[in-house]
Design a protein that fits this description.
By secondary structure, the chain is α+β, with helices and mostly antiparallel strands. It is 22% helix and 22% strand. The protein has four domains: 5-61, no CATH class; 92-108 and 635-751, no CATH class; 127-205 and 445-463 and 482-629, no CATH class; 216-391, no CATH class. α1 runs parallel beside α3 (42-57) and α5 (182-197) crosses α11.
């Protein structure tokens, strides 16, 4: 039988090391097409797909993309002698490598790829199976482990303390012993079991939307609505809506005699019909309520209404005065919006400023049909907080379409479970008007509390823990080509936290190493950070803890998997993104239900004890890959970059992983000043999370931690980074006048 052209093409790409994520995705689409893909192709197709994905994971894929990078680098080297190169506008492949920024650091997390095929699934195993299969084992594993970094297990307290200083959080204790609850240990073991066995996810948030930035522009006719009774995922809500009009922000400020930015105005604003008067109270003469847009979204590719006609040339130019919306509340009609719309709003705004809606809030409504408009609730497609809204992609729906085998067993109504659910129990979640395909069943692996007897502790001033942002394309999606990455790409895989080298005073869990800044030069004192940080009691490094894990009716494969999991690096407790809770098991003793000791050994990483224990080779390989992600790395930090006078992790996404408004690709970052002269290029490549290389765990570096420069919006609305030799004060000034004058002379005196 002749080889199919699709298989042959991918084989050639593997042989030439010209694999790209696009080729892999197209191959998978062909395999998932029942009209084109036949059963006779399956074995050969799965084999070449496995080789291609291994090549991609090893960092040898996207060969052609790397050649473009090398060609671009060669051109840049020539530019030192022959002037600046001609670049394709704002494309990443021709931009300078981000390492030119310096200040390397490591992200607190990385990903282990999802398996390329569905896990084995079967009917749940009953607890009494050992009455029929008498070779199954029941008993207890007595485990000793050692902390390789400090461990955080906070005491739960009700209510928030009213204090002028950060709250003190003691460790969870029973008498003199410090405790990690059994529920926490169970979660650690279950997650790691799923990674090693290639099992499905344990939980998927069906509300979560992958959104980064704003990708939906509402067009006329526009509709505003006031929330009368907010809905939720469980019940409908009611709003009063009407068609909206726009008024220039500058005009509104003038009417209000507003002394501050409108974006900071929290009081309701009311207009008269002729737009000649505005006030903060509604009456018969002021029936129009204004929706203040908040922070202006007009720095890049503004909406059509942000343009006006030049009084000089008559040409269309960008207006310096964005518009606010207003609608007539007195003639607004009440409609009911179904619960799905409120649920989707919460999912789209999970990482936004306005995460939930309350009575009296104003929102924009997106119609299904722009020409038909909105007559009742059935015509509403989405609820939006701003006219530049959020569309995104529903993660649950995306996973269902592209990686359905990674959906939790609890959501699959086929009555089957994978090995992880079979060992740790499962509660099915039947679809509406459907009966669960299996009854809830208990776990056969049950850890007890992890106990640190008479453990030594210390109090630590904690840095701010940043919120995860799963909508960030460059960090969560599986496409290394930043000119083509989009929400159509698949997620990277299982998220795992890194560990940190901390023997040089660079511990990421110390506030002094990751402080909050009021100014690029001045860190905020810890005692002034009460709303953002805590002072926590941590267990010392190199402390020994003990716990028992009871198991029931395990066969040899299942017990071997549990032992393999315990041989790997464990991450226990809180503060994992700060490097806390890194532990290793130092001793395992197995005692059968009859009281007979059948096992006693000191585990080695990602291995099984010699003798009767064995597992499929892919389990061992995934365990080894996971342990490689736990190799301590230097300078593990939340990403930070200067944005005016503020620093924070989201600034990094804003500048180095910003999606293009078209939805495909990331914005490159422009540069000027000394840096542009040094590298011979006025563009720097966007940065995403580098793919993890198990042969070199420290290679996945990011660049630009605590940049000593500034960002400004200029030159055709691109973000430009300026690197100057001037003092910090002059860096903060835009378009500085360097000619001799009294200000420059005073700066010179101050500097002396």
């Amino acid at each position: 039988m002749a080889i199919h052209p699709c298989i042959k093409n991918l084989q050639d790409a593997v042989r030439k090391k010209e694999i790209t994520s696009e080729k892999i995705n197209n191959f998978k689409k062909w395999m998932n097409n029942p009209k084109k893909f036949k059963e006779e192709y399956k074995e050969e197709a799965e084999q070449v797909l496995l080789e291609a994905e291994k090549l991609m994971q090893s960092g040898q894929g996207d060969w052609g993309y790397k050649q473009l990078q090398q060609k671009s680098q060669s051109s840049r080297e020539k530019s030192y002698y022959g002037g600046k190169q001609k670049q394709e506008k704002y494309m990443n492949y021709s931009a300078a490598d981000a390492k030119v920024l310096g200040s390397p650091f490591h992200n607190p997390y990385t990903f282990i790829p999802f398996p390329t095929k569905a896990p084995e699934r079967k009917k749940p195993t009953p607890l009494s199976i050992d009455e029929k299969e008498t070779d199954r084992l029941s008993g207890i594993l007595r485990v000793k482990l050692q902390t390789l970094s400090p461990l955080l297990t906070p005491e739960k307290k009700g209510g928030k303390e009213d204090s002028k200083t950060p709250q003190l959080v003691p460790a969870l204790k029973i008498n003199k012993d410090i405790i990690v609850p059994a529920s926490s240990v169970r979660g650690v073991l279950r997650t790691l079991t799923a990674i090693i066995s290639g099992s499905a996810l344990d939980y998927v948030d069906d509300e979560l939307y992958l959104c980064q930035g704003r990708d939906l522009q509402l067009k006329e006719p526009l509709y505003l609505a006031e929330v009368i009774s907010p809905g939720s995922r469980y019940e409908d809500g009611e709003v009063a809506f009407n068609q909206a009009k726009l008024i220039e922000s500058s005009r509104l400020s003038e009417l209000l005699n507003c002394p501050k930015e409108l974006s900071k105005e929290t009081r309701p604003i009311w207009l008269d019909e002729s737009l000649t008067s505005a006030q903060y109270q509604e009456d018969e003469d002021h029936p129009y309520r204004v929706k203040v847009s908040g922070r202006k979204v007009n720095s890049k590719n503004p909406p059509e209404e942000y343009f006006c006609r030049s009084k000089v040339s008559g040409r269309k130019v960008k207006s310096k005065n964005p518009h606010e919306g207003y609608f007539c509340r007195s003639t607004a009609r009440k409609i009911t919006l179904r619960k799905e719309l409120w649920k989707e709003y919460g999912g789209r705004h999970r990482n936004a400023t306005k995460t939930g809606l309350q009575k009296g809030d104003l929102v924009w409504l997106e119609p299904y049909d722009q020409e038909k408009g909105i007559k009742d609730g059935s015509d509403v497609k989405s609820i939006q907080w701003a006219r530049w809204g959020r569309k995104g992609v529903n993660f649950f729906e995306k996973l269902s379409e592209r990686l359905s085998y990674m959906l939790p067993d609890s959501l699959k109504n086929d009555g089957l479970v994978d090995i992880t659910s079979d060992l740790f129990g499962s509660i099915p979640m039947p679809a509406q008007e459907a009966v669960a395909s299996y009854d809830a069943f208990a776990a056969r692996i049950r850890p007890e509390n992890l106990v640190f007897q008479n453990a030594g502790t210390f109090w630590n001033e904690m840095p701010v823990l940043g919120m995860p942002h799963p909508g960030c394309k460059a960090f969560y999606l599986n496409n290394p080509d930043y000119d083509k990455i989009s929400l159509e790409d698949l997620p990277r895989g299982y998220k795992v936290y890194r560990t940190s080298k901390h023997d040089l005073g660079q511990e990421p869990w110390k506030y002094s190493n990751q402080p909050i800044f009021n100014h690029p030069e001045n860190a905020k004192p810890f005692q002034d950070t009460k709303n953002l940080t805590r002072k926590c009691e941590l267990i010392n490094q190199n402390t020994t803890g003990v716990m028992n894990i009871s198991f029931r009716a395990l066969n040899r494969k299942e017990l071997s998997l549990l032992l393999l999991v315990l041989s790997c690096d464990l991450r226990i407790g809180g503060g994992k993104p700060l490097g806390l809770g890194h532990c290793k098991v130092t001793e395992i003793k197995g005692v059968s239900e009859d009281g007979v000791e059948f096992l006693c050994y000191q585990p080695q990483r990602a291995s099984l004890p010699n003798g009767q224990f064995e597992l499929p080779e892919d389990y061992i390989e995934r365990a080894k890959l996971y342990c490689k992600t736990q190799v301590p790395v230097s300078m593990m930090r939340y990403p930070r970059a200067i944005n005016g006078l503020q620093r924070g992790g989201m600034c990094y996404f804003s500048y180095f992983a910003e999606p293009k408004k078209g939805g495909i690709g990331l914005e490159s970052v422009g540069c000027e000043g000394n840096l542009e002269q040094k590298i011979g290029n006025n563009l720097i490549r966007a940065q995403g999370l580098p793919f993890f290389d198990p042969t070199d765990p420290e290679s996945d570096e990011l660049f630009g931690y605590d940049l000593n420069g500034r960002f400004s919006s200029k030159k055709q609305q691109k973000n430009f980074y300026s690197d100057f030799d001037n003092d910090t004060k002059s860096q903060g000034q835009k378009n500085e006048n360097n000619s001799p004058n009294r200000f420059s002379r005073q700066r010179a005196r101050d500097k002396r």
